[in-house]
Amino acid sequence: MGKEFEEVFAALKKVLGKHEKQLKVKADTAKEYTLLTSKPSPFHQHKGQPMYFGSVRLGKAYVSFHLLPLYMNPTLTKTISPALKKRMQGKACFNFKEQPEPALVAELGRVTQASLKQWSKQNWI
Fold it and tell me: What single string gives the DSSP state of each residue in 53-87?
């Protein structure tokens, strides 16, 4: 599963990587790619630190795609297709054991773009 998971990781990293210039890279390794907001969080619990936006993580059993804005946007979450919902773990994580279909990659791209747009409107990015 090592090589296959690396390919899944690379495909999912491209989805987040398209937004790297608007966000801040916290981690970019062979097993983790994490993006934060470029501005300090407006929430006191973050103590002026940037907020976690999303990440791709290569694990032992699957590759996960995390998108934190989904926690704060139930309207956007309702637009997720049943096929992508099958991969959902919790409120903001999608797990993949094999290369995702192009339609699912495109949908993750759409949801990520909509999340970025929403957070930009909030002036968090």
Answer: EEEEEE-SS-EEEEEGGGGG-HHHHTTS-HHHHTT
Instruction: Determine the structural domain holding residue 111 and report its residue range.
Output: 2-119
CATH number, position 13: 3.90.1150
Instruction: List Cβ neighbours of 21 (8 Å cut-off, separation of 6 or more).
Output: none
Mean local confidence (pLDDT), 84-106: 95
Is residue 124 a part of any domain in this protein? no
Q: Angle 78-84-89 (CA atoms, 0-180°, nearest 5)?
A: 85
- Total length of the chain: 125
Pairing of strands 88-89, 63-67: unpaired
State the pLDDT confidence band at 38, using cuts at 50, 70 and 90: confident
Mean pLDDT of the region 76-95:
95
Question: Which DSSP category does 1 fall into?
Answer: -
Tell me how many domains the chain contains.
Answer: 1
Contacts for 68 with CB less than 8 Å, ≥ 6 apart: 51, 52, 53, 54, 92
